[in-house]
Amino acid sequence: MKNLKKPISELTPEDLKELVKPLGTKGRPYPMRDMVMEQDASGEKTLVNRLSVIEDNRKPLKVYSDRSYTEVVGMAMREMPTPGMLPIFFDAIQRRDPANKRRIQFMKGAAGAGKTYMAEFVARMRDDRGAIKVDCSNMNLGELLFETVIDFGGDQDFPKELNKRLENGSVNEFCMNLLKEGLGKAFIDQGDGRATIDWDKIGKQNIKLKDKGKDGEPEFLEREKAVQKAIESINKVNDVLKIDLSGNALGMATQKGPLIIAYEEGREIILDEFNRAKKGTTGVLHGVLQFIIGETDTCTATNTLKEKGDEANQSYVFDRNDMKGGFFVSLTGNTESDGTDVEELPQSLNSRIVPQHIPIATEEDWQHRICQILTGIPVSTLYHSKQEQWDQDPDGFRKMLTQWRSMGESKDVPEQHRRLLQRWEKVVKASEKLAKFYYGWSQIVDPNSMLHQAGSLAELLDEVDETYNAEVTVDFRKIIAHINEALEIRPQVVKSEESGGYDVADWDLPPELEDQDFEEDPLASFGTRLSRVIIKQIVSDTQERGKMGLYRDLMNHAKDCGLIDPGFHEALRSEAESIAALLDDNPFESQVWDVRVELVRDIVCDYLRAKYPEIEVEDNEQILTTSTIDRVLKEITDAGADVEQAPELDGDTPEGEVSAEQEVSSPLIYLNGDADTLSGRPLLAAQLSDVAATPEDQDVMWPATEQLVDVQDFLPTLAAPEIRAVNLKAAWNKALSNSGVVLSGQDSIMDESLGVAENTSDNGIAATTLVMKRVAESGQVEECPMHLIWNQKKDALVIIADGQISSALSYAFSNSRVCYVNRESATAEQDLNTALANVLGAEREQAEPVIKNALLLRAEAPSGGADLGGLLLQRDVEQVVPKYVLAA
Amino acid sequence: MQSTQDKTAFFNDVSAVPRTGAGQEIWDDLVYQVVRKKLAASVPQQIRGHHVYEVAESWETKMLREDPEVAVTSNIAEFREALAEPGIKYIFVPKGAVVKRDVLTDICEEITLAKTIFYERENNE
Fold first, then answer.
1. What is the ipTM metric for this complex?
2. Residue pLDDT, tens place only, A488-498
3. Interface of A with B in 26-65 (CB under 8 A)
4. To 5 degrees, how large is the angle CA A496–CA A499–CA A500?
5. pTM higher than 0.80, yes or no?
6. Residue A773: which of A859, A684, A711 has the closest Cα?
7. Does A124 contact B114 at a Cβ distance shorter than 8 Å?
């Protein structure tokens, strides 16, 4: 038998020893907020509340629990109450000591402050049965002792039989409507002709009387009347259905209520919204509460609800000798200022059950909860409780966070949590900004907040009032809703001018969608989406309701907190400390070598799957091992390092020593599509053959199309970490200026264009054309000019080539700041427009003519003198000084 | 019902595991564990300690019905019972069960024993 189910009076010293699970010992401290004396700047000493720790092997925090030590510690670390609530948590644990006769705690605070959650958590930490929870709003508190229920006249199969008929859809609409009216929320209509009755819901706020009662909260029919109404409607329905009730009609009876059940079973009970109970009913509990607070050792509760002739359940005797260790009562209530219906306890009880007030959440508390929601563990509080240690040993903290997150955990740790914990440093920074934002937001919309009381926002008082605050209130639940929304993959919205427009054709057949097997990673742009969700909420709560002053202030606050709308134009690398940048878990941005290796392996495998559809193996490691990729990438990066150390070459090098041809010999890398050799050599080196680099005394060599690299074998490399850098470096050279065809220093416009064409421009923009091959739909092999426009400030790239790419590559491109434009697509022009806007951003207008001139240094202007778009999208533009990419 | 052959086709890399007697039990247990992990690989909706995964109808969800670790609930009474039972860690609500999604959320708010819940939806939803 579990110890918490035993009467306290029968617990042996061994039982007690088994029950105790210590928290806060040497080497295993537990965070706690406490008052400490601190000296301020003027030298005056004051008492302040500060995050500290408990580490006491003699008197640790003792959790009396039937769970194992690992379960208790794991839960205590993960579900730790906010710093502001830690002292109340400390008290909650102390009160549950079996030696304590006072088995009650009353917590009061604002809605959403987390008081009910804390009571649930403590109950769950002690006992795997958790707490019985009762919503006491508008309740006759006598129902806690004895409750009204439906009497099925001895036929306990009746509810099952009625549900069976409802669930198989055999009850007619008339009866369904009768039940709907009589049972309210306890009748659940599936909407497909089937329905069911949630018997447990009857009498528990199942029939709404008003959307808003006196306190602004919904008002429900009280239990006794709701049960009566249910019986009437069920009896009417049964007149039609004729379910056998052994000759009796349904009636009302009373049974032991949840408080007696909790007492008998040795369980915790949470009486939620206790001070919103029906006025004048607290007195019924007077004697029982005296027993629970330890003033009396026995108490008899009388059943005031019993029906005439109801012999059972006349009264119930509570006796301290029978009280079990698991029995404990948590009362929660909103502060009196929350509504007129919130009732104070009678003075006789109020002085005995002193409520503990949940302090108003601080930024530290907000950060704690945000970390819990993001990672499943309060990273910030654990970090701040021993900051110096974790700053010196970040990997040690990572290890401990991972251990605590899964310690005694029965559920699988979500991938989101695991990945974010690996990046705990960024989580701490992002959560700090988010906490600052949410805390400020909650203050700005609350007319009673300290911010408004201080008069700092006097100009907003016209826009912010109690009613508005109640509607848009900002609490922890809002963060959960925002985070859940940000984790959903939703269609991307594009500006109207960037849309491809409506297809004026027959819409009868559904469109062909892209590869559905490919799953987008919801965490890759999680920070970006979260920022957007929050901004959207601000706009909806302010601008769309005509509150322009509030909108302006909140947007400024959002900007200060790193929440500016991170559109593709501005985000990228320039906003490294924005919340978007901190929380986006984009593996393409990862500096961790193993992540980069794995990513390259996945890109190569996706490429192989597209090339060989017959590959069915799901595990990429079986197609290509990361160790192979690791080896090859190290070879590439080592070779790159060697090039870095080589002496710089210039155009004035004496002929015969180093030729311009040598300078362009740095290889490009492409993917090996040959199934027989790829496992050992997944990557191959291509040679750049630049016509501009042909020595004057030699004839130009024009390679055959078959010798060129297939563009589809090259494209994935521009999304692959390490390889992309090598290829982008090799794609540009100084052959034009070395050849003397284009002279620098003659004309500033020409100089700028040459800089862009050779990747030496101060503005960081480079553009070029590489000639490769492609297999057209007809099967014919033909030359394929691939244009590259690279904005190095953002490391963003536009690629224009022929042919559709896979969804996987498209996704990889979008995460690696690559915009791919398929020249053959019907929407190519629009796609190019979007791509140039994204990659060039505000510099677009100035950059476009220079890019065009740069490309024309190697190509002939198309007939009619096309603009940049025409030059990039027309296939017949002749490359007069081409750069060929030759296969190995 | 998914045949054993179909299941093994997916795990062909561990084909050396014996398939009779105790070996079969270990094999089944391993398969069930992998299936649960696979279905729980996405981001869950978190409701008062519970993790709720909306999963598309698939052979994996068919296997959940056979998994002895999973309580399959077809109506609200069964769902409530499973949610309140401390020994149950996983609950499966199959497509066609008379448990609406919003009602599931309400009950999860009420009984907070932190379970893993798989809620099956139509493939095209």
1. 0.79
2. 777 767 677 66
3. none
4. 145
5. no
6. A711
7. yes
